[in-house]
Amino acid sequence: MSTRTMRKTKASARFLAFPMLLAAVLAVFCLLPRALANRNLQLSIGLAVTALLVFAWLLRRRVIASGRGLTMEFLPKRVHYVQLVMHSCLYAYWGWYWREVYGYVPLILAQIVFAYALDMLVCWSRRDKWILGFGPIPIILSTNLFLWFKDD
User: Fold this and answer.
1) Contacts of 17 by beta carbon, 8 Å cutoff, 6+ apart
2) What pLDDT is stored for residue 91 in this prediction?
3) DSSP 8-state assignment for residue 103
4) Mean pLDDT of the chain
5) What is the pLDDT of residues 119-129, one digit of tens each?
6) Which whole number is the average pLDDT over 21-26?
7) Bridge partner residues of 73 (DSSP)
8) Are 32 and 83 in contact (CB under 8 A)?
9) What is the separation of C-alpha 150 from the centre of its chain, rounded to a whole number of angstroms?
10) DSSP 3-state percent helix, strand, coil across the chain (nearest 5)
11) C-alpha triplet 20, 24, 25: angle, nearest 5°
């Protein structure tokens, strides 16, 4: 392996620290009072963290073995951040009149963290570039707007 390829591979392996960091952030959600009160919720979050870490570890091995160079690009799309603002306004308004909505905010944030980590890993497993944007957020917010998940 040439020096240039080794540098590119090491930099790519460092990029894979991002989904691992997000997995660690997701693990912190296990310490929330709501998760501590519900064993199934703790187990669900723990299994999601484990799956992300295993996926990241396998992808890291594959990237190092192949000498691929991973990259990321920030490309916000107007339609995504407009939906983000509109959904946030809806949740704020709804929560003002029904306080239980605010109790679900940590769980929605956990879903967003998981979606970004999974998006990174899937994109990098299929191609060398991950495009960072606001795409996962409107999907999660609109799904939770119409369908409240049970904690577990």
Assistant:
1) none
2) 94
3) H
4) 90
5) 999 999 999 99
6) 98
7) 131
8) no
9) 20
10) 75, 5, 20
11) 115
